[in-house]
UniProtKB/TrEMBL annotation:
Its cofactor is FMN. GO terms for cellular component: cytosol. Gene3D superfamilies: Aldolase class I. This is N-ethylmaleimide reductase. It comes from Mycolicibacterium fluoranthenivorans. Residues 11-335 form the NADH:flavin oxidoreductase/NADH oxidase N-terminal domain. Keywords: Oxidoreductase. PANTHER family: NADH OXIDOREDUCTASE-RELATED, NADPH DEHYDROGENASE 2-RELATED.
Length: 369
């Protein structure tokens, strides 16, 4: 597979996202890689992995837990709630900046997707005690997800405080900003859905109530680090994480109407742009919009360029193709063949499939012993 972008393509033009100058509009989508150390400190290889991909207009990191209970959907995923975590993230941010890149940290609470066997015995929490009908890999093999404990109303301020504290640590570590993970069936998405959220307090029921936790997290993080350093990811109608939503548009309209005046760096939407929901939400959101189409058949850069040209998207996020092509931008300019992602090493430990995807230069001049 190969695509050619002209040097004057919209996707290659710089863009300002909040307080950050991105050198092009092709961002690296958040990608969990399961290489972190047992205590949630990122891998020693992560600085190299991310700096190899500094050609992206903006790197959005893998989902990073805001607390211990927020972790545990998959093995070896990082956090940003201890000094040791923060020190490693500072090393990663420094390496990306030295390579000319920009980096936002995706902040994550897994909610009911957590498994006690992955997370030191910690019981997962969620809006309601409803299990996802799914399995996850644990140290003792594949296990069904468990029924989570429903959060009490008086525990919600603590969740918001965890996002706030992790955002502060991200900025103190030198990252350019944070992306709040409101997508893909994790805690904030579980609150948005009328299926996984059956609460009767101020965080359940009406669309405004279901949007409340995400909005309050966004507001707290904005208060902590400034709107120009905050993005939000949503995936309206996406079924990842055994997610169902019955009146999708209403909750996201309520959310976007509430947060629009804050002036966030961007809204990141994982959606097929031909979906009805996208048209409605694009009309509500006049700010910077990062689009991830997530097509099963892989990224079509010609199609993405046309979304950017029309203004349907301000920038695009690319996941698997960036994972496999550290020098993606150079390849697109040259129309060079793209490396294929190796699914078997997406979540495998070690360097293979992580920092060893070759650049074009390495393909042309193979490393000699
Ligand atoms: C290996 C892998 C890990 C992922 N991890 C995350 C994640 O940590 N956070 C997130 O929001 N999405 C995650 N996603 C979803 C991607 O960000 C993206 O939406 C998806 O891969 C579709 O985009 P693509 O076709 O460009 O790969 C992951 C996807 C893959 C393949």
């Amino acid at each position: 597979m190969a695509f050619t972008l002209a040097p004057d393509a919209t996707l290659l033009k710089p863009i300002r996202v909040g307080d950050t100058d991105a050198r092009n509009r092709i961002f690296m989508a958040p990608l969990t890689r399961s290489r972190a150390q047992a205590d949630g400190t990122p891998s020693d290889l992560a600085a190299e992995y991310y700096s190899q991909r500094a050609g992206a207009g903006l790197i959005i990191t893998e989902a990073t837990a805001v607390s211990e209970v927020a972790n545990g959907a998959y093995m070896n995923t990082p956090g940003n709630y201890t000094d040791r975590h923060q020190e490693k993230w500072a090393e990663i941010a420094g390496a990306v900046h030295d390579a000319g890149g920009r980096i936002f940290m995706q902040l994550w609470h897994v909610g009911r997707m957590g498994h006690p066997e992955v997370n030191g015995g910690i019981e997962p929490v969620a809006p309601s005690a409803i299990a996802a009908d799914m399995t996850t890999h644990t140290p003792s093999g594949k296990k069904a997800l468990v029924v989570p404990r429903a959060l009490r109303t008086d525990e919600i301020p603590g969740i918001i405080a965890d996002f706030r504290a992790a955002a502060r640590r991200a900025v103190d570590a030198g990252l350019d900003g944070v992306e709040i993970h409101g997508a893909n069936g994790y805690l904030l998405h579980q609150f948005s859905s009328d299926v996984t959220n059956q609460r009767t307090d101020a965080y359940g029921g009406s669309p405004e109530n279901r949007a409340r936790l995400t909005a309050e997290v966004v507001e707290a993080v904005v208060d902590e680090i400034g709107a120009g350093r905050v993005g939000l990811r949503i995936s309206p109608g996406n079924s990842a994480g055994d997610m169902r939503e019955e009146n999708t548009v209403a909750v996201y309209e309520a959310l976007l109407n509430r947060i629009a005046p804050l002036g966030l760096a961007y809204l990141h939407v994982l959606i097929d742009p031909s979906a009805r929901e996208f048209g409605v939400l694009r009309a509500v959101w006049s700010g910077t919009l990062v689009l991830n189409t997530g097509r099963e058949t892989g990224t079509d850069f010609c199609q993405l360029e046309s979304y950017a040209e029309w203004g349907a998207a301000s920038a695009v996020a690319v996941g698997r193709t960036f994972l496999a092509n550290p020098d993606l931008i150079d390849r697109l300019l040259l129309g060079a063949e793209l490396n294929e992602p190796d699914v078997a090493t997406f979540y495998a430990p070690g360097a293979e499939g992580y920092i060893d995807y070759p650049t074009l230069a390495e393909l042309e001049e193979p490393r000699t012993a």
